[in-house]
Amino acid sequence: MLGYCTNVHSGDSFDDVIYNLKTFTWNIQQNLQKPLGVGLWLSDSASREVDTSQLCDVLQKHNLHVFTLNGFPFSNFHQKVIKHKVYKPNWSEESRLAYTVRLARILAAITNQDVAGISTLPLGWKDDSFTNEDCVRKLNCCIDALEEIEQQTSKCIHLDIETEPGCRLQRSKELCDFFEEQFGDSERARRYIRVCHDTCHAAVMRESADACVANYKNVGLLIGKVQISSAIEFELGLNANTSFIADEHTYLHQSSVQLKDGIQYFDDFSNIPDEIKSGSCRVHFHVPIHLKSFGELQTTQHDLLESIPILKEAGVTQWEIETYTWNVTPTTLQKGELVASITEELAWASNQLSQ
Questions:
Q1: Which of 38, 103, 114, 260 would you call most buried, defined as having the most Cβ atoms within 10 angstroms of its Cβ?
Q2: What are the residues facing 281 on neighbouring strands?
């Protein structure tokens, strides 16, 4: 199934979620004139307020099908400044476990899929003071809860860990090593813990889809879903206008620069030193996937086009577009308005997936 993630829409309450579905999401569905897959985002606050009967009624009335939840952003994802806050609480904390289990019960109640996933953060930010072992204890509790949900509902809800630059698990190999070290050959763990492969994150970390898929297969991890996304790419020193990236303070914009002697990684675009004056730079700034260029800059769409057939061959069936930066993108770089842009993204992705 193909859909888009509703974390692009602001709103921290359940009422906000309903409003967004009735307006933005329904208008996108009307543009497409076919059933629309929805990757639903519910904040912790919204998840506590959910009326599943009302939500199911709205989804059915508007021909919307929730096939996955985004359980990464815990609180309001459209605050003025988020940056490192998006990685809290981490997976060593009870509040992360409780939130995720709550989402799993909601998903089992509203999805028409027998198997569906919830994407989650890669444990937490790399420098925060928690241990992987503390996270494993909470993840094992989550596995227990997911198994209980399946026994009660016959719905297999799995947790999909999403690697991200700057986090404890940045690359596919780090995720796979962590899983193998902590869960060994447990088939039960592999049933309920899977991978959320974000193509923007992989591009920033300079990981090819081939390498990622090989790592996942090597330890028997399934790809629960792919988040289809593109990063910004440009050559340093070409005097392209990048001020909007440097001036954007809501989110972190992790970056990598390809130098003659290797790749350097930076926790934020603003951390790239002035003395680095050349090299291919990729920035974690999700931009519309149907665009090859973004103003004066390029995107990693070429990397995405190479990745899609590899991921299809690996058996991926769940695809979620996640271009959440619309509200912080300069209006001069916005192509049309939000509903039209998401509609174009979905049409573009559908065309690529059908090839």
A1: 38
A2: 234, 257
Provide the 8-state DSSP code for 322: -
**Dihedral sign for Cα atoms in the order 27, 30, 34, 35:** positive
27 by Cβ neighbours in 10 Å (0-12 / 13-18 / 19+) ranks as: middle
Q: What are phi and psi of 80, to 5 degrees?
A: -65, -40
- For 97, other C-beta atoms within 10 Å of its C-beta total 20
Show the tokens assigned to 282. Answer: 């990729």
For strands 156-162 and 193-198, give the pairing.
parallel
* Tokens describing residue 21: 């579905």
Q: Which two tokens stand for residue 166?
A: 């700057």
Measured in residues, the chain has a length of 355
Tell me the C-alpha to C-alpha distance, in Å, between residue 318 and each of 83, 180, 307, 314, 336. Answer: 28, 24, 14, 12, 27
Block means of pLDDT (10 residues each) for the chain, 355 residues, are 97 97 98 97 98 98 98 94 96 98 98 98 97 98 98 98 98 98 98 98 98 98 98 92 93 97 97 95 97 95 98 98 93 88 97 97
For 134, counting Cβ atoms within 10 Å of its Cβ (0-12 exposed, 13-18 middle, 19+ buried), the class is middle
Tokens in use for 177? 């090593």
CA distance 179 to 185: 9
| Residue labelled with tokens 């590899």 | 310
**Are 169 and 161 within 8 A, CB to CB?**
yes
Whether cis (ω within 30° of 0) applies to the bond prior to 89 is yes
